[in-house]
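Structure (tokenized):
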């Protein structure tokens, strides 16, 4: 009889541990915390239960209490996201599109030929090392940034694939006038991905995340 009671207790404890750590809602909450989303409360779900509300700056999201799906509330998006990495990529590409200058209206033809003015060369473009330093500065200014900066530098020093991916991402951003702050956001996304990854190839997967971000930047610049 006692062994049956003990077995039931073990099952109850195992179920509690699963719900407390491995349930998708809790996994999304941990991922959100890594990406600096702040838990601001709960809201009733139409199907019962309480969805989790989170905010960062002027943006807001909620995590569905049943499925763990992430809904972007500000700006409002009609479809849910699979996780916070998908949210970060969507927001980054949206910001990149908003930062693109609108095409200038064609100037009227001059009444008479005039000497062409010397074009303004504009501000000098950053060198790659200077741009990478700005990325590090942006990363250091984020919440918990000094730890993330030291992590990035350790990965670049200890992993050739991560260093190559980081350099490729900075080159793409520099060529297409993407801000260092957005590049820092992609590194934060890569760090968050590590928390959901196991195995010896964690750094390789993080490097693949940075390569994917570089491809997204080039694809957005080609539009």
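Design, position by position:
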């Amino acid at each position: 009889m006692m062994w049956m009671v003990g077995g039931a207790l073990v099952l109850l404890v195992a179920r509690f541990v699963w719900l407390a750590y491995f349930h998708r809602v809790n996994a999304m909450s941990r991922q959100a915390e890594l990406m600096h989303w702040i838990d601001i409360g709960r809201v009733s779900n139409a199907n019962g239960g309480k969805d989790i509300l989170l905010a960062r700056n002027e943006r807001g999201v909620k995590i569905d209490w049943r499925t763990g799906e992430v809904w972007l509330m500000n700006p409002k998006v009609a479809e849910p996201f699979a996780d916070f990495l998908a949210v970060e990529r969507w927001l980054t590409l949206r910001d990149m599109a908003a930062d693109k200058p609108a095409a200038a209206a064609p100037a009227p033809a001059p009444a008479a030929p005039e000497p062409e003015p010397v074009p303004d060369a504009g501000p000098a473009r950053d060198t790659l090392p200077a741009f990478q330093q700005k990325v590090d500065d942006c990363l250091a200014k984020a919440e918990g940034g000094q730890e993330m900066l030291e992590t990035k530098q350790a990965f670049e020093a200890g992993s050739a694939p991560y260093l190559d991916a980081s350099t490729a991402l900075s080159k793409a951003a520099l060529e297409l006038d993407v801000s260092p702050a957005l590049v820092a956001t992609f590194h934060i996304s890569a760090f968050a991905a590590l928390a959901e990854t196991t195995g010896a190839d964690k750094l390789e997967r993080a490097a693949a995340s940075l390569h994917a971000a570089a491809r997204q930047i080039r694809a957005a610049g080609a539009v």
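Reviewer-requested clarification: The helical segments are 2-22, 24-34, 84-99, 128-141, 145-158, 160-175, 180-195, 202-222. The first helix runs from residue 2 to 22.
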